[in-house]
Amino acid sequence: MSSDRSRRPDQERGGFVLGLVVLFLFTIAMAATAGYQMVNTEFTLAQTAREGQKALVVARGGLERFLGEQIGMVGDSVSWAIGDGIATVTTRKVLEADTLNHLYYVRSEGTVADVRTPNDPARRVVSTYAWHRISPVPDTAAIFMTDHTLEVRGSARVIGLDTATVADCPGGGTAGIVGVASGGAAFEFGGEIDGNPTDVDLGWTGFGHVVQDSNLRWDILSDPSFPVEFDGTAPDWSTLPADSFPLSRHVGTLVAGGGSSWSGGRGTLIVTGRFRAEGSFRWNGIVLAGRLDETAPGDDPEILGMIVAGFNGDQRDEILESGTFRYHSCNVYAANRALSYMERVDHAVFEVN
Amino acid sequence: MVARGGFTLVEALVALVLSSIVVVLVSSVFLVQNRYYATQVQRSGAHDVARAATEFLAQEVRSAMAGGVTVAEHDSLVIRSPMVVAAVCGTSGTYAYVQFEGGEAALDQDAVAGVGVYDAAAGSWSFYNEAWGSGGLDGGTTLAGVGCAANGADTTGAMEEFHRIDQLTSLHGSVPLPGTLLTLFRETTFTIRPSQLAPGVEGLFVGRWGDTLMEYASGLDTTAGFQYLREGQSAYEDQVSGAQLDQIDVIRFIADARRPAPTGGVADIRYGWSVNIPLRNAR
Fold it and tell me: Which of B26, B120, B154 has the CB atom closest to A92's CB atom?
């Protein structure tokens, strides 16, 4: 009995202390748990908001890139990895205002997947409308150049009358265009200049009118980083469909024909430097040149389409001694499509979600 | 027996003192922890208020067009933000056929405050306040897709995205030509004024056009408000009015939040930031 009584106070004290410790631990654990839950919720909210912002940036980036880089025919869908996410751009044509101007709905969806939410990525969608300018280079003249004199001598012929007929393409067989358009002068010294409604139009005064009036961003087209279908070397035409009019580029001076790999072809040819046609060079389409060079007697180059030259600002007076430069509306139309681009409708970017 | 059976007075006093010290220490830890927790709760609440108000406001403001701000004061902002942007792809009589993502199903018709018509030549929007279905502005899907397809629209798999808007003539004076952009917009009012839910602090009240303002976020500080940067200006202004409303390029939201001090605290919990929100479609 006495020994039981002597142990009881010790046991009661021990039990009380243990209970106190458990109570404190429980309280602290509850507070810690609540705090953790709160911090975790805050973190999740902040993370979601941040990823939503990232997705919006990705979507905007995709839209801008598409509108900036799109050239040629409009595809249905394209995706890029941008920043931490992926932008998928899709288009839908909503109007054909005419044969050369189509209105598209352009939609860019940006997704950003976090390692914690791989199956539920942040998604943001932005959209806008953009005009597809199918034929950006206006049919101005068989040779359209800056303020300098063009002499057409010998066997050279510059003809603005349309070579194409309705049998070549719908809309073919037009009344034709001017032979030579320039702000300088043009003379026939044994050669031939012909066109409609006039052979020569010298109303394009002011240096640089080619750059302004051709509706082209020469700085972009001539930039080596601007993507073209064939860069530096002529396409292997045998592998291309007969109705393809690709976009090709040669950086620097090009002496076409006369032993060059560029013996002929079709589409749009961008020559960032001087362009000289020799031998039996043949081209169906548009030639855009930083500068047009002369042709020599005895050669027989032929361009069925248009030449637009003088973009570099170093154009000089030139003499064409040989060659046929003749407008062909179907070739120009087809080549123009390779240069077609998207023009965003201003003030219409809309956040879909 | 006597020595084993009890405590001396000294032993009891020592035990009492030690126990008291332990209780005081543990209680202090608990109280500090509790106060810290309460502070964090308040801080978190303030953070939530600032963030929620900012995100909601930013999304409304970002897409607004030029002319989309109708009231620009320090504690009040009324903005027209596009619910959809649509392109006219055909017309028939007084009907304009349009395309917009999701079509009618994606349109909260009750929230439509009016229609805006874009003048591409002038580069400006004309806005007309008119509730959807009120007679001046209505819609439907009848033949819209067919009408647009006749003009070259690709309706494959998306016929529901083509929509008919009626009676624009009475609002705009004429049916917009194909290629014209329209927007169906909501007009949202943001006002900062004393909170009804949390006395002592300010609240952000939000309301649609014609509706009663609802308290969207409680716990803003009296320093919260709006500021405006106009085109060509370098300094923000607290108020813009009249023709200068069309010049607003950026809206700054000063999202200062405040919560009462937690029990035992002496100072209110303040948290906030300012965010500059550009009107991306304004210029």
Answer: B154
Q: Which of A5, A95, A351 lies nearest to residue B59, judging by beta carbons? A: A351
User: How close is the nearest chain A Cα to the Cα of B251, in Å?
Assistant: 17
What length is written for chain B?
283
CA distance A304 to chain B (A): 31
Do A207 and A61 belong to one domain?
A: no
Interface mutation target, options B85, B177, B249, chain A, most CBs of A under 10 Å: B85
Within a domain: residue A345? Answer: no
Please tell me the predicted confidence (pLDDT) of residue B219. Answer: 83
Question: Tens digit of pLDDT for each residue in A259-293?
Answer: 778 899 999 999 999 999 999 999 999 999 999 99
Question: d(Cα B50, Cα B254) in Å, to the nearest integer?
Answer: 9
Domain count, chain A: 2
Distance from CA of B104 to the nearest CA of A (A): 14
User: pLDDT tens digit string along B135-186?
Assistant: 667 777 778 888 899 999 998 888 888 888 887 888 888 889 999 999 999 8
d(CA B63, CA A56): 13
To the question of pTM greater than 0.80 for the whole model, the response is no
Q: Do both B96 and B180 map to the same domain? A: yes
How far does the CA of residue B63 sit from the closest CA of chain A (Å)? Answer: 6
Q: Write the secondary structure of chain A as one string of H (helix), E (strand) and C (coil).
A: CHHHHHHHHHHHHHHHHHHHHHHHHHHHHHHHHHHHHHHHHHHHHHHHHHHHHHHHHHHHHHHHHHHHHCECCCCCEEEEEECCEEEEEEEEEEEEEECCEEEEEEEEEEEEEECCEEEEEEEEEEEEEEEEECCCCCCCEEEEECCCEEEEECCCEEECCCCCCCCCCCCCCCCCCEEEECCCEEEEEECEEECCCCCEECCCCCCCHHHHHCCCCHHHHCCCCCCCCEECCCCCHHHCCCCCCCEEEECCCEEECCCCCCCEEEEEEEEEEEEEECCCCEEEEEEEEEEECCECCCCCCEEEEEEEECCCCCCCCEEECCCEEECCHHHHHHHHHHHCEEEECCCCCEECC
- One domain for residues A2 and A120: yes
Return the number of CB contacts < 8 Å for A and B: 103
**ipTM metric:** 0.78
Number of domains forming the structure of chain B? 2
Please judge whether A34 and B37 are an interchain contact, meaning their C-beta atoms are less than 8 angstroms apart. Answer: yes
Q: A84 with A43, same domain?
A: yes
Same domain as B204, residue B68: yes
Statement to judge: residues A264 and A318 lie in one domain = yes
Residue type, B234: S
Q: Give chain A's mean pLDDT.
A: 87
**Same domain as A295, residue A186:** yes
CB contact under 8 Å between A105 and B48, yes or no, is no
Closest residue of chain A to B37, computed from CA coordinates: A35
Provide the domain limits for residue A215: 141-339
